Amino acid sequence: MRYALAGASAVAALLLREVLGPAFRTHYPYHTVWLAVVFSAWYCGIGPSIFSITVSIAGIWYLFLPPYHSLLGKSHTEVLGVLSFLAFSAIIVALGESNRRLALKRKKAEEELRRAQTELEERVRQRTAALETMKEAARNLSVRIMNLQDDERRRIARGLHDSLGQYLTALKINLDMFGATGPREAAVAEECNSIVQKCLAETRTISHLLHPPLLDEAGFGSAARWYVDGFAERSGLEVELDLPAKLPRLSRDLELTLFRAVQEALTNVHRHSESSWVQIRLVLDATQVRLTICDNGKGIPAQKLSRILEGGAGAGVGLGGMQERVRELGGSLQIESSGKGTALTITMPRLEPTSVAAEVLFPATEDGLASSEPLPESAA
Ligand SMILES: Nc1ncnc2c1ncn2[C@@H]1O[C@H](COP(=O)(O)OP(=O)(O)OP(=O)(O)O)[C@@H](O)[C@H]1O
Ligand SMILES: [Mg+2]
Question: Model-level pTM greater than 0.70?
Fold first, then answer.
């Protein structure tokens, strides 16, 4: 192909010289073939260039050097002219060839670079996809673990309430009977009774903290109020709870997520913020639920905050877990924090309860469930 191109360029140059004959007359026999030489040297390589030069010289020799249309009888000047043409052509071919090789090398290097870049991009894409899959799996796993933890808490709470609570109640009845047998027995029974009473109260409080029955029976509003009252009393924090006057029931998962968020946020305020005040506000509209929890404490250290916001570990699992729970329900958690305090804002789609009858796990106790007894140390 390259030989054909070079030959064609030489023939075209000779034809052009022929066409320009009337203008050039006997002068400038080489003018047009320079074009063919340059073209061949630039684009076709050494072999085709030599071929093009040979065709050009043969054509010029035969057609444009006197005596015309003859191969013999040329003068010394013409022979010298041909030799000069050959020498300059050789220089042009050498320059063209080195340029052509450089261009080829550059093209090859560019191609290799492009291939390496494509390969790298593909590898990055695969790694990113794998990372995303792993992240998604980790997220699913942590949501599953939290759900299992919720179920476990429910079960332990029910076990504490149903079995331990009932045994303690039976023990109390027996103690009352034992106390009736004599004055000395009455004194011992009274002392034992007060211990059993404390055990009962503690058992009930722990059981309710693990999973407040009010949450299932009466909804987030009542459970939050019960929890906040106990927490404020025990921790000494001033807690403002601002709920809608008529708070309708929401889906079980949504109420549980809101409740666990309040639990975690209050614990964080107590443990980390050095704040003396905290405000919890719930706002509902037709489609969304927004829970904000603000304190006026020292704030989350900037580095920790950016790690938490990026979805990485931020020292503990509380805020991360909260984020996962909220995300699982299609919502988002926003954290704003500075030296003047911290504000958590949870926005979630409003999900209605799936069944009218809320799951009741605990029979109501005779003295009501919204106990204002002090919380055990673990709750604060
Ligand atoms: N209200 C707050 N005020 C100041 N710092 C906070 C507040 N809430 C969280 N932090 C900071 O953010 C970090 C992460 O909180 P997170 O609840 O995720 O973990 P934790 O409370 O340390 O441990 P865990 O909740 O797992 O028991 C905390 O260690 C604390 O430094
Ligand atoms: Mg925490």
Answer: no
